[in-house]
């Protein structure tokens, strides 16, 4: 680096020393960046807004002896209305937690950055149903991360399955599991109940996107998608309890 201007969004913010904060940023070009924001908690600091969770902006970063600090920021969007609605805030916080668990330092993350900022906009400004926005975020996240669920055939025997026959999603194999294969599996297998309407919702959101689907938002299988993504991340995310 030593000086770098980059778009970024704050995934985590923790008070540090008397007036500082430690930030975890997601950047499109460099993935996760941990940076100190010095003096941001002093009265009238120009960096106060830039150090809050959800703040998206053009950040100026400076690296010295292995430590990165924020020296300036032009805020693009603070997603401020999220802070005034506790229900929305819980869903938004969960999406940040998923990004924090997934983002790696130095790994380009343009898809993840775009998915997160668009999903936060849908919650904040388009007033879409938070449960379906979050489920779509998880579904598209899984596709972008290389484990797009297989939603046409049984993942065990490859038989093409009509939607009305669907009962189970196989978390381990990442897709549909037919009734016959489900019966043959040990009790320890991670089978998640899936309705045909939940399946139709996932298929349509993958094909046309959350803003174009005609499927009702209440069909979004959020709980299944949380279990699926967290099993792939190999992390239980505490923020999951809030939604
Ligand atoms: Zn099968």
Describe this structure in words.
The protein has 243 residues and is an alpha+beta fold. It has two domains: 1-127, Beta Barrel (OB fold (Dihydrolipoamide Acetyltransferase, E2P)), CATH 2.40.50.140; 138-243, no CATH class. It has helices spanning 86-102, 110-124, 130-144, 179-184, 196-208, 222-233; strands at 3-16, 20-27, 31-37, 56-64, 67-77, 168-170, 175-177, 191-193. The chain has a five-stranded antiparallel sheet with strand order 3-2-1-4-5. Strands 7-6-8 form a three-stranded antiparallel sheet. A hairpin with a 3-residue loop joins strand 2 and strand 3 (31-37). The longest helix has 17 residues, at 86-102. The two termini are 39 Å apart. The mean pLDDT is 95.
